[in-house]
Amino acid sequence: MSVLRPFRATDMFKFNNINLDIWTETYGISFYLTYLSRWPDLCCVQEAPNGHMMGYVIGKAEGHGQDWHGHVTALTVAPEYRRLSLARKMMSLLEMVSDETYKGFFVDLYVRCTNSVAISMYEGLGYSVYRRVREYYGSLGLGRASKDEEDAFDMRKPLSRDPHRRSVRANGREFVVSAHDVS
Amino acid sequence: MSTALDRQIRPIYDALDTQSNKSAVLACNKVLKKQPNNVLVKALKALALVRLQKVEESLLLADEVLAKKPTDDGVLTAMMHVLRGLGRHSDIVAMFETAYKQHPQNEDLGTQTFFANVRVGNWKAAQQVATKMHKQFQDDRYLYWSIFSAVLQANDMATPEALRPVLLKLALRLISSGNTPSYFNPDRFYVHLLILRELEMYDDAATLLNHEIGQKICETSLVCDEIRRDIMKLKGACKQEGEQAKVKILEKKDRNWLEFLSLLDATFWDIASTSEPASEDVKAAVTEEIAKTRKVFSEAATVDGLKDRSGLLALLELEKRTKSHGLWTDACEIRMMAENYFSQFGDKACCYEDLLPYLAFEGEELEQWTSFLNSRKSFDTPDTLQRSINVYKLLRYNLTSAELTPELELARAQEYIKVYLDGLKFGVNLPDTELQPADDFAILVGHAYVSLWKLTGEESHLQSAAATLEYASARSKQSYRIRLLLIRIYHLLGAPALALDHYRLMNVKQVQTDTLSHLILSRAAMWSLAPLGDITYMSECMEASQIYMSNSTEVCNLLLILFAIVMTNIQTAEFIARAFSTERYSQIIDFIEFEDRLDNSLQRDLMKVEHVRMRVAHEPLNAELVDMELIELKFIFDRIHHDNRDFEVIPNYQPRCQPSFNEQTLPLKPPGAGWLSAYLKVYIRAFQEASDLDETVEDKLLIGDRPKPSNDPENQLPLRERLVKKRQEEIDDLSEDEKLFYEYTLALSEWVGPYHDYVRPPPSALLAEAAKSNDLKPGHPLKSMAAAANGSATNGHSKKDEEPPAVKESPELIPKFFDDMKSRFDAVISGTALPSELLHIVATTQEAYLLFALETVRFKPNSIIKQYKFGQLAQSFKDLRVKASSILNEMSTVLAKLGEEVATPDGRKAFVQASSSIQDSSGFDHDFVLGVAKKTTDARKQTYEGIAKGLAKVVKNHS
Ligand SMILES: CC(C)(COP(=O)(O)OP(=O)(O)OC[C@H]1O[C@@H](n2cnc3c(N)ncnc32)[C@H](O)[C@@H]1OP(=O)(O)O)[C@@H](O)C(=O)NCCC(=O)NCCS
After folding, report:
1. Ligand 1 within 6 A of CB of A18
2. Domain B3-182 falls in which CATH fold?
3. Dist. CA A84 → ligand 1 center (Å)
4. How many CB atoms lie within 10 A of CB B31?
């Protein structure tokens, strides 16, 4: 149970309980404002009845031709509100808007190869690994030098405009590219 | 441009592009030698100069260029950057306006003029430009620019009340004049709805919304749907909304809590919408509605099972509202529902906060609820562990004051520790990026010990809390919640360095510094070792303030992007246009609010004041410091502040009859707007007296726009009057010691002020002096004033007609302040007060001493004393300084001794013994507790000794 509402610029004053979590990056102000000014309908917040922010998703639409798609830039739920289907609901909203409003062919996202919770969740939601991107992320700063931590999986899910599932492939985990090859 | 010229100018652009500003200047000079009147080159040179911080030269050139009324694209662009660099935004507007007037057919100039006005929030002018453009170019986007500018003008605080509806009606008229209806795109539709809502034309809005396209827009646009809900509520169409919500909940399985709230509101509408007492008939009707709604919620709950908690929670809310409207409900209904809710969702972390609003049980109900919870403790699996955490939190929430005795709290603390240590087994295999499932038990331990400290006043409990939480933090490195508690506790224990460590590990950055830096920077001056040259806290302030510097331009530019996007989407293909166009106008309003809240953030200026307080302790009190800070603080003084600080992020599981953890662990009441105002007045007054800058001089020296004056009638009074006016809001915000300090500073400046005024060189003399030394240029901090303030330059210029003011004895209050602080200090030393309280007293006394130094530095030179016959005054100063110095030195000695004592093996042993309760109860390792003890006592020693040395240094520097 939660209030689903648009992400507002002033939410940046309230998102600490979510962003202090290690898996969630806090970007510069212009990052959020750029998303809000360009794809406000791909940015939404789940809020508890007492006004606390529970989680949010920030997305965009990008690509050319067959590559035109919705992209999940950040999806996060505060630890105390996990396993309440909030991520599932926000993803389905983002997919709906990517499909109906933007008419994209698929939705994609990047996730650290070590973030097993998120990966299995995305798989459960119908996403599959399209390719592995080397050194996509910075280190988590935990003093380890694990490659997996810095590599990302690019995961995708086709939308209704791609009925033949051309935007995904079966053995994506073996398909490795470097961070320079993706934008 | 001829190719020859092009060849000459290219290198200038290249140099500018690569930030080689010096070579850009050289390249410009080369061209200017041959073509001294080339406006473009002058503009580019001005740009290179402003980037090189050669403000005055740049200014001269910029003014030359502006006088030529440029219309050339290249010149305008260069000048825009120059003027932005100089902070002269209003000149940018004027420049584009002038250019556009000369070429009214130039669409690009029109757009630039519009943007320039947007950038400075000049909505009225923006609206006029857009209207003109619409007439000229016949494009609906300009119509909507003008409409939305009118809306923003109506929203602007500075717009008179009576003008607002006029502007909104104008906007509405403009909408109907468009070639396409507003629902052509959701953006415009939103604007239309917004205007109708502001004009309270709800029926018209409803007509739009009930239209097929209107409904469709609201389905995919959360922003339109939000304003739709709002309008329907204002229209009183609650019941209609309720019916729709019912359909959405049952048929579309919509689980947005807003739908549940709509149905709840509709259910009670007949009672809640009037202030009249409800008749029996109405009550009966509402009771019937309640029954129907109950069925809807129950059905949702049954369908969802464990998948969604909306249905069950809505049932609780329904019962609660039924009861609060005085309608009949079984006394045990809410409790039974809460139990049911717990049975289903007790293994979710949010169960605790979900249930809180419904748990105000008393008597029999409370007993039953408590025994229900007690029977639900179990620790077999991770899920039951989470359930037990909720049990313990919920039990704690309803503890009565009778149950909050030291003995019982201690027993609870020990039980929490036991279950915490047991619970760790569920997390042994987790990677270090995961939180430990048992963390919240450790957090409960922290709560119990803080409560024990509050009940008994014994510091040992805080030490136990620190030891347990450190233990937990080491096992759950990502738990920022544990760190938050530790930060508070370490401050109380006088170990700020450890608090700072934890804060840094939380990796607070970007906009978070605005909301969270209060954790370590509230009254940071009291922890600072600035007198010793340790600038840790000063740098923290500077770093945390970065966000404000970079933000203001960002928001402006983004506002422009917003308008620009509206522009592109009209030209692009239909589906992309629709995709891009959702609600950017609503974003504009949010962005403006965001910018306002960040620019005028309370924390921003609290940090500024802390920085000044530390700077005064760190640096020599010369005119450079005084003049610069005076100007900066005066800029801040008129702001209307917004408090963005986040205190909610600090966990709270204290019983409802107790203050929250946050409130309990604040060393002092957090500084608010009143505190800020008091301290701004203190420092502005002191700087003003110490400075030779007077308003007329200041005006000559300032470049850039001044802040927009606020409309507060208080701010219309002359500054001098405002500075001596004490307001209740200020007093209420100050600690007891700060109140004494505030009075002291008022007495001090009242006493010394007249002598300053007499000795201060007249502005004319000052300006002449500065001009002579070739230093009086706008934008240049008054370096030459240093000499002036030290007395040497004033001789000869200050022949005044009046007699010097008669020398008066120092007011009673001044020596008394130091005596009072001394006895406060002695009392605290011999009592059980915490280090934080002790350090607050010391810091306040030191600050008073520094202000005294600041207020008397002008009268130090013998020449001044002789010339004005201030011998007696100088003697009073000296007496006071001696008195204050000896008190500060005494404090320093005592602190240094205390510092030595804490960090001895005995001191540590005391710490370990004090936390014996956590050792008895558990598998806590003696060595671990000893380690925490060592860290804490070392940190405290470091603070005490540093501050002690700092005191001595301050005394020495200013004796
Ligand atoms: C990943 C994350 C967003 C999931 O949010 P959430 O609201 O808890 O997820 P949901 O409740 O919607 O879960 C959807 C499904 O994902 C799976 N899932 C989610 N979290 C899981 C976990 N910890 N363990 C196992 N499965 C999990 C489950 O199948 C779940 O369905 P179920 O609860 O019906 O079994 C959240 O854990 C998070 O914010 N993590 C940190 C940030 C992050 O990693 N973001 C992703 C980076 S791209």
Report:
1. no
2. 1.25.40
3. 9
4. 20
CB contact under 8 A, B649 and A20: yes
Q: How many domains does chain A have?
A: 1
- Residue B509 tokens read as 């950055």
| pLDDT per position as a tens digit, A51-83 | 999 999 999 999 999 999 999 999 999 999 999
- Tell me the nearest-neighbour CA distance from A19 into chain B, angstroms: 9
**Run means of pLDDT, 10 residues per run, chain B, 959 residues:** 76 90 95 94 94 86 96 93 83 95 93 83 90 91 90 91 96 91 86 96 95 89 91 93 95 94 96 88 94 97 93 96 87 92 95 96 95 92 92 98 96 94 92 92 98 94 94 95 98 96 95 96 95 91 80 45 34 24 65 84 96 96 90 86 96 97 95 97 96 75 63 76 93 97 97 94 75 50 41 45 84 97 94 90 98 96 90 95 97 94 79 69 75 92 96 94
Provide the residue ranges of all domains of chain B, joining segments of one domain with +. Answer: 3-182
Distance set, CA B656 to CA A42, A49, B342, B390, B453 (Å)? 39, 19, 19, 15, 18
The answer to whether B582 contacts A40, with C-beta atoms less than 8 Å apart, is yes
- Name which residue sits closest to atom 5 of ligand 1, judged by CA: A87
For residue A72, the domain's CATH number is: 3.40.630.30
Which three-class secondary structure state does DSSP give residue B836? helix
Enclosing domain of residue A44: 3-181
Whole-complex ipTM: 0.93
Rounded distance between C-alpha atoms, residue A40 and residue B366, angstroms: 47
Coil, strand, or helix at residue A74? strand
CA dist., res. B32 & res. B653, Å (int) = 72
- Using a CB-CB cut-off of 8 Å, the residues of chain A touching B601 are none
How close, in Å, is residue A10 to chain B by CA atoms? 5
**Ligand 1 atom 25, closest CA:** A117
How many interchain CB pairs under 8 A, A with B? Answer: 164
> Between β-strands A176-178 and A69-77, what pairing exists: parallel, antiparallel or unpaired?
unpaired
